[in-house]
């Protein structure tokens, strides 16, 4: 039997530093990544350390609503 597909969901990660400080005047946007997570193993919001191309540093990217 096939398992249901709604266990793994697609989430959007957004740079928390860019959102908190507002976007810099010289930058053109906010860094976002798309990934998947298992809803049963990770029920809370996902936070990963990813490279922000607007801050030019590794920053914490948090899950946002779609």
UniProtKB/TrEMBL annotation:
Listed GO biological process terms: translation
Keyword hit for Ribosomal protein: yes
Principal place of residence: plastid
A single cellular component GO annotation: chloroplast
GO molecular function: structural constituent of ribosome
Localization per record: Plastid, Chloroplast
Domain of life assignment: Eukaryota
Keywords: Chloroplast, Plastid, Ribonucleoprotein, Ribosomal protein
NCBIfam families: PRK00504.1 (NF001764), PRK00595.1 (NF001860), rpmG_bact (TIGR01023)
Family: Belongs to the bacterial ribosomal protein bL33 family.
Protein name, entry field: Large ribosomal subunit protein bL33c
Organism: Veratrum oxysepalum
Phylogenetic classification of the source organism: Eukaryota, Viridiplantae, Streptophyta, Embryophyta, Tracheophyta
